[in-house]
Amino acid sequence: MNSYIKYSLAAAIVMLSQGAWAQETLSLEQARKLALEHNKKLKHAQYNIDAARAVQEGTEGLTKPTIDGSVAVFHVGKPLSNLLPAVGVSPSVTAAQPIYAGGKIKLGQAAAAKGVEIQEKQKVLTESEVLLNVDKAYWQIVNVSEKIKLANKFKALLESLDKELTNAFDAGMIYKNDLLRVQVQRNETELNLVKAQDGLVLSKMNLAQIIGAPADANLTPGDSIVGSFDAIPSQSFGAAVEIRPEIELLKNVIQAQEMQKKILQADFKPTVGLLAGGFAGVGKKMNMATGGNTMASYFGMLSVNIPIWDWGQKASKVKEQSFKISAQQVQLEETKELLTLEIQNAYLQLNQAAKRIQLSDASLKQAEENLRLSNDRFKAGTVTGQDVLEAQTLWAQANSNIIDAQIEYKVSEAVYKKAVGENKR
Question: Residue 108 and residue 325: Cα distance in Å, rounded?
């Protein structure tokens, strides 16, 4: 395959991959699924799990014998050459088998398994954080999109009022300042619209980064801010704290620290090992017993190592580890307290958002009625253009408030689900 064909094929693949995201409509669930598959933080967490598993696999050989081989080539001068050959080769093989190590081997294997479990819990925690970020980024896009739609509607109202006031001014029925107020508001709306469109681009880039899509992917939310926005009844959240990944992670860390303490305590116990080996030598008159050029032999050794006195070094390490465990236990209790506060705050924020929607909805109905009455009275000549402009501004603000309230509810709902451990895959 020549370089031109390779380049063309690579370009086609890139174009196809970009085309798949060119105009992608995503539901919230699809965005969450993509994040679980492609988010870089989750990939990082998975690599940590793989590394921990590699460590665990390495501990499986701790109970098995180790075999080492070596080859030595030597040359000696006088007077050693009177006893040894001047030039020789000596290969050797040794095998070592641990028999008893004070329980360190089993504890090491258990600690390695616990390390895998800790990394898996860490990934669960990372998943919950990533999914919350997906929800926030997704609803931010919906929020900005709805604000752009509202800005365009408001712009249309202002243009219509501008046209009517321009006609009235040309006819000498109003002063120019009535017309200028509307034009100033139109300019401000145009600026806000540009800002919102720029904000939409950044919001889409933010979601794309989280779910692993290209930065220029035109992600369009498929979900809208509709549905029920109910408050949650009061309840106890004690059980919710216990199932939080943070708590499970800290419990595993404490268990790992306790295993480490037992490993340190095992240093007080004797260790027993068996060493066996064989060696050979080739060289002129290598065998001093027979005068031959070759020699081979073997050896075996049983070693018992008994700790007697180390001036308290091992004991101090055990004491240090005990303090570390106590510190972790205090951190666990503090984390439970903080998570209880977090859950309670999330609960209150969600119910506040539900109440804000009710009040915003009432305000929107009042603003719509006020705008209708202002338009009718303007046509009847009983109010000025300024009154209509104020009514339009109130209408736009009321619409903006209810959009914010609904988005706030959606985000607060996601925060609440994460807080009570329901924000999972």
Answer: 18
Q: What is the pLDDT of residue 78?
A: 82
| CB atoms closer than 10 angstroms to residue 313 | 9
Check residue 299 and give its pLDDT. Answer: 86
- Nearest alpha carbon to residue 252 among 334, 332, 336: 332
Residues of the chain with confidence (pLDDT) below 70: 1-23, 425
Phi, psi at 223, each rounded to 5°: -95, 150
**What residue ranges define each of the domains in the chain, with the CATH number in brackets?**
23-64+102-269+311-419 (1.20.1600.10), 66-100+271-306 (2.20.200)
Cβ-proximal residues to 117 (8 Å cutoff; 6+ apart), any chain: 252
**24-26/219-221 β-pairing:** parallel
pTM: 0.86
Residue 296's φ and ψ, nearest 5 degrees, are -145, 145
Give the model's pLDDT for residue 228: 85
